[in-house]
Amino acid sequence: AKATVGFIGLGNMGAPMSRRLVEAGYDVRAFDVSPEARTRAHESGATDVETAAGAADGADLVILMLPTSAIVASVAEEILAAGTARPGATLIDMSSSDPFATRTLAERVDAAGLRLVDAPVSGGVKGAVGGTLTIMTGGGDETLAEVEPVLAVLGRTVHAGGVGAGHAVKAFNNLLSATHLWVTSEIMEAGKRFGLDPAVMLAIFNGSSGRSGSTENKWPNFIIPETFDSGFGLRLMLKDMQIATQLARQTGAPSLLGEDAVELWAEAAGELPPAADHTEVARWIRSLAER
Ligand code: NAD
Asked: Where does the 3-hydroxyisobutyrate dehydrogenase-like NAD-binding domain lie (predicted)?
């Protein structure tokens, strides 16, 4: 029989990821604080439960796909306190968490006789639906080898290093991604005002050295069509950028553009609604010109 997998956090990413595990034949025990999310998980074939401890009940693996490190830590505490997971079970934090918090949590989890690995992802909702995520892992070789069959259902794994390494690389990736999106949005507006066709600009960048996830994916798929529905929240992006710049600061590395980017994104986040998609920054940057 396949492993029993607890899955906690059934949002934009967690819902399609848990669905894939159900479809791959795993016994998935799904929990989210949102009753609607639990109902959707039930409809997709998971066993929906009422608590985090219930999701961990008899589980060999518990996947966490939650907004922040603080929430991950409180859910993990609940699981440890309940003692419902199998002895030696592995918690896999696939959220984009803070690597320092992850290291602290790993010690807590180890002391309780369980294990923790970090396995954050890139590839968005589309990657979650299609099982084509890039999964950046941090943790011991042996533990990661054990969880690999489950991760393989969700995407392609790249081992970044020890516990916290996956979370560090993920935060850095998103700082790159956010900075690219901001400057792309600035030059797209400038180009349009100069009289350039946005589609022509993107086609040229995508065959040139200015290409990025913003020119290849975000602009053509969510911004030009004005749907702004990538499924990745602006506040979550800002959280990742703050993790990255704080990490840079703590290492003593310069983070000049990074800090400026955090400030700009924070300003946009302060003005846009809490649930705004991160691609809304493009529209917000355009609106600055009209002030
Ligand atoms: P989301 O806000 O859509 O989903 C988070 C879910 O967690 C919600 O359903 C919420 O109800 C639930 N939740 C909150 N607190 C909880 C608790 N205490 N117990 C149980 N459930 C709780 O977020 P998302 O977009 O799915 O992102 C999840 C994580 O993955 C974040 O760390 C995010 O930064 C990261 N991420 C997102 C994307 C993306 O494209 N959306 C891509 C890569 C990584």
From this structure: 164-284
How far, in Å, from the CA of 194 to the mean position of ligand 1? 40
The total of structural domains in the chain comes to: 2
ipTM of the complex: 0.99
pTM for the model stands at: 0.98
Instruction: Spell out the residues 6+ positions from residue 169 whose beta carbon is closer than 8 angstroms to its own.
Output: 136, 160
Amino acid 290: pLDDT? 83
Within 6 Å (CB) of ligand 1, which residues are found? 8-14, 31-34, 37, 52, 65-67, 71, 75, 95-96, 121-122, 124-125, 231-232, 236, 240
150 and 172 housed in the same domain: no
Question: What average pLDDT does the segment 24-51 reach?
Answer: 98
By residue range, what is the domain housing residue 273? Answer: 168-288
What pLDDT score was predicted for residue 111? 96
Distance between Cα 10 and ligand 1 center (Å): 7
Distance CA 195, CA 191 (A): 6
The reply to whether 45 and 186 lie within a common domain is no
What percentage of the chain exceeds 70 in pLDDT? 100
Same domain, 60 and 43: yes
Residue 44: which CATH number?
3.40.50.720
Task: Please say if 192 is a catalytic residue.
Answer: no
Closest C-alpha among 193, 135, 192 to residue 167:
135
Do 78 and 51 contact (CB within 8 A), yes or no? yes
Tokens found for residue 257: 């553009």
**Does 127 share its domain with 230?**
no
Residue nearest to atom 17 of ligand 1 (CA): 33
